Amino acid sequence: MQAIIYRWDLKPSAEENFISAWRDVTLCLKEKLGSSGSRLHKCDDDSYLAYALWDSLEHRTEAFASGIPHQDQIMQMRECTKRRHPEMKLEVTDDLLLPIPAENSPEENANAFATFYHWVINPDLIVPFKEIWHRVTLELRSQYGVQGSRLHLASDAHWVAYAIWPNREMRDHAFAHSVVSNKEKEIMRSALMSKQIEVSMKIIEDHLSPLQNSQT
């Protein structure tokens, strides 16, 4: 399964029109061209980021080549955009991310937020790093009832985790009461070849389908 990250800086007062156009295009790709949907976020720096899923990059290429309906909405998105960041292509390698509960209240969904973690990992320590990430993610899900995380390998060989939290307070509390042992912390620190990059985001709209092989 392939994930694509799109990110945009919007023109002033263009948010409402951009979100409306993004929604129409996303639902068209999902319902008519076989994508697994997308989730839109607003980052802490006020940029917008979409996390989209396709079963393969070839499928995405074929879908776009077939001609996407709603060309007016695509043009509307472009007109709202001040800058479009380079897209990121990610291969899902370990999926411990649960869907956002459908029964959540609007207030609960309004507080939910996502975080991307970017790492450059020493090739010799990838296996222990991934094993610790897997164990810690399951422990956080068990202890705090959070949605968990999904691990990816980017096309530039960076590693990216996409995590969902019910609210920022829960994330801060979980990190303050770490479930990572001192030995595991040392292994993970040793594995990193550059400083961790973290992007925090508020979830704006969710049209993302769960993966069929998600580990519960």
Outline:
The protein is of the alpha+beta class and 216 residues long.
Q: How many β-strand runs?
A: 9
CATH topology of the largest domain: Alpha-Beta Plaits
Number of domains: 2
Structural class: alpha+beta
The low-confidence parts are none
- Rounded mean pLDDT is 91
Strand order of the largest sheet: 1-3-2-9-6-8-7-5
Helices, by number, come to 7
In whole angstroms, the N-to-C terminal distance is: 18 Å
CATH class of the largest domain: Alpha Beta
Rg value? 18 Å
Summarize the main sheet: 8 strands, antiparallel, barrel
Proportion of residues in helical segments: 25-40%
The topology string of helices and strands comes to EHEEHHEEHEHEEHHE
The proportion of strand residues reads: 25-35%
CATH architecture name of the largest domain: 2-Layer Sandwich
The coarse overall form would be globular
Describe the structure.
The chain is an alpha+beta fold and 216 residues long. The chain folds into two domains: 2-88, Alpha-Beta Plaits; 91-208, Alpha-Beta Plaits (2-Layer Sandwich). It is built from seven helices and nine strands; from the N terminus they run E-H-E-E-H-H-E-E-H-E-H-E-E-H-H-E. It has helices at 15-32, 57-65, 71-80, 106-111, 126-144, 168-176, 182-191, and strands at 2-10, 37-43, 48-54, 81-84, 88-97, 113-119, 148-154, 159-165, 197-208. A hairpin with a 4-residue loop joins strand 2 (37-43) and strand 3. The two termini are 18 Å apart.
